[in-house]
Amino acid sequence: MAKVKGDIVVDIEKCKGCEVCITACPNDVIAMSRNVNGKGYHYAESVNEECIGCANCAIVCPDGVITVYKVKL
Amino acid sequence: MSDIITKEQIRQPENLVYTKTKLLTDKALSYCPGCGHGTAHRIVMEVIEELGAQANTIGIAPVGCSVLAYEFMNIDMQQAAHGRAPALATAVKRLMPEKYVFTYQGDGDLAAIGTAETIHACNRGENITIIFINNGIYGMTGGQMAPTTLPNMKASTCPYGRDVKTMGNPLKITELIAQLPGVHYVTRQAVHTPGNVRRTKKAVRKAFDLQKENKGLTFVEIVSNCNSGWKMTPVQSNKWMEENMFPFYPLGDIKVDGQLVK
Question: Which residues pair with A32 in a beta bridge?
Fold first, then answer.
């Protein structure tokens, strides 16, 4: 039972689809979307509820497109 | 407590853990996907935000991929001639000694055309901070061989790999300048994993704090990837960097408190 619950918000139009966040995520929350943004990049998105709000994805994101939220349950 | 909580309930301002610092402008970075420059920019800006020094910092942009750094960093910036950022930083710091002054340079700028300026600014012990991004290649101009290119590493001007017999040895400029008495703090970090990003941020913070104390020149090298120049995906290039760059450019402090780390 998770004691904390997190969520990420990706700035879709600024994401360049480098996938660095995917390897940084400890819980495999992030995957690349099948859709593309205005520049034609597949963007990162949260695909499950496992996020713990550790912000690892956000601090390695070269373009700083990820915003992280966390609540304690 | 119930575990049922919607994403909208999580996405509230009071639950915010991390967002891009306001000291970076809203412009989309001009770097390739996965480039370490963006992370390095953000780390420097986060440190300046922590110091509360947005109005008291002057950055010097180089020539290279990060030539447009002044477009992204929301502080006072000046763009220097190729390789001359430490000379310009010297002038700025001497005229305004109360400001934080840093240069942000790549390996083509700092270790090739700007070697003389770098070494002499370091030797004079100017109270500036140099952020040095080392990706072992000339990224902006199309992946040519740089002084920092590893032996046998391929680049567009050495497509069969760097042959040290004809093309010379890679230059470890960070170890070189660590020998100079004017330099107070020298460290080499990376920004490809969360742990490395946190360590790099601490190093940059330390460098700025030491600058405030007028201890001498502080130098932070960031070993970075260049996935376009190396012809790899960002994730592959980070792995390649761990396997090939780090044995040659080992991470860690090189000089602390004016003493070489053994």
Answer: A44
How many structural domains is chain B composed of? 1
Task: Summarize pLDDT for A9-60 with one digit per residue, the tens.
Answer: 999 999 999 999 999 999 999 999 999 999 999 999 999 888 999 999 999 9
Q: Are A20 and B233 in contact (CB under 8 A)?
A: no
Which CATH number goes with the domain that contains A30? Answer: 3.30.70.20
The whole domain housing B218 covers 30-260
Please provide the distance, in angstroms rounded to a whole number, between the alpha carbons at the two ends of chain A.
10
> What ipTM does this complex have?
0.92
User: Do the Cβ atoms of B200 and B191 come closer than 8 Å?
Assistant: yes
If one counts every other C-beta atom within 10 angstroms of the C-beta of residue B169, the result is 10
pTM of the model: 0.93
Question: Among residues A49, A40, A9, which one has the least CA distance to residue B33?
Answer: A40
Residues of B with Cβ-Cβ distance to A67 under 8 angstroms: 16, 18-20
Task: Report how far residue A33's alpha carbon sits from residue A4's, in angstroms, rounded to the nearest whole number.
Answer: 25
User: Which of B11, B12, B15, B41 to probe by mutation at the A interface, max A CB count within 10 Å?
Assistant: B15
Closest chain A CA to residue B43: A59
The H-assigned helical ranges of B213-252 are 227-230, 234-240, 246-248
Q: What is the CATH number of the domain that holds B124?
A: 3.40.50.970
Count up the domains in chain A and report the number. 1
